[in-house]
Design goal:
It is built from six helices and nine strands. Helix content is 25%, strand content 28%. The protein starts with a strand and ends in a 6-residue tail after the last strand. Strands 1-3-2-4 form a four-stranded mixed sheet. Helix 3 crosses helix 4 and helix 4 packs antiparallel against helix 5. The protein is of the alpha/beta class and 222 residues long.
Length: 222
């Protein structure tokens, strides 16, 4: 099945292939591309030579130029030729897709798009993504750990302990706050004598939530 990508609008100066701003139809595999001649020849040495009239290029019955290339990768090449937009291939989980950048570079070399080749070879795409981190620390028992949101999060757990006041009567709501204990608690403490341990170690789990923030910079800047 044949599919067609975005189409540039031709102006009124020309309508035939080979004339300035003529509409050019390309076929790569089963995919059709239609764009302006000026889009193709401005930065591509390959298309500048191809459309100069010096080459005999095979065509389809519908007059599309047959091009030996990868149609999926050519989408990135054509987007750059049309808008000067460099491909930002970054996933928050997997990072940069270096394999796809390699494939785009090979096609960019074939089509003679020098600026795009230089941009990929110098790995300028790495500076087009800004990554920052923020973190918050919670007690695991607090019930307010924020694990929501679309940004990636990692969780770091640490076993901690603290010294806290112990109610002599063992009343849970009094633990940690001696002001809650009244006369009865004080009398119990006196009765217990040396066996009463005022301060005890309480263990708890501390959770640090680290959030990764990704900001994509202007992809048209070299």
């Amino acid at each position: 099945m044949t599919s067609t990508t975005e189409v540039d609008e031709p102006n009124n100066l020309a309508s035939k292939q080979g004339e300035p701003d003529a509409m050019i139809t390309l076929q790569m595999g089963d995919k059709i591309f239609r764009t302006l001649e000026s889009t193709l020849i401005e930065e591509s040495h390959f298309f500048r030579s191809l459309l100069s009239g010096r080459w005999t290029t095979p065509k389809t019955p519908s007059n599309a130029l047959l091009i030996d290339g990868d149609p999926e990768i050519f989408n990135y090449i054509l987007r750059y030729l049309r808008r000067g937009t460099y491909p930002i291939l970054y996933d928050q989980t997997r990072g940069f897709d270096y394999g796809l950048y390699r494939a785009i570079l090979d096609e960019a070399k074939y089509f003679g798009v020098e600026k795009l080749c230089d941009w990929i070879q110098s790995k300028k795409f790495e500076s087009a993504v800004k990554i920052t981190y923020s973190w918050q620390t919670y007690e695991a028992t607090s019930g307010n750990i924020d694990g929501n949101g679309s940004e990636p999060k990692t969780f770091q757990q640490t076993q901690m302990s603290r010294r806290v006041y112990q109610c002599p009567r063992g009343i849970a709501v009094h633990h940690g706050d001696p002001q809650r204990c009244g006369r009865v608690c004080n009398n119990t403490r006196e009765t217990l004598g040396d066996s009463y341990e005022r301060m005890i170690d309480v263990k708890y789990l501390q959770v640090t939530v680290v959030t990764t923030h990704t900001q994509f910079m202007d992809s048209t800047v070299e």
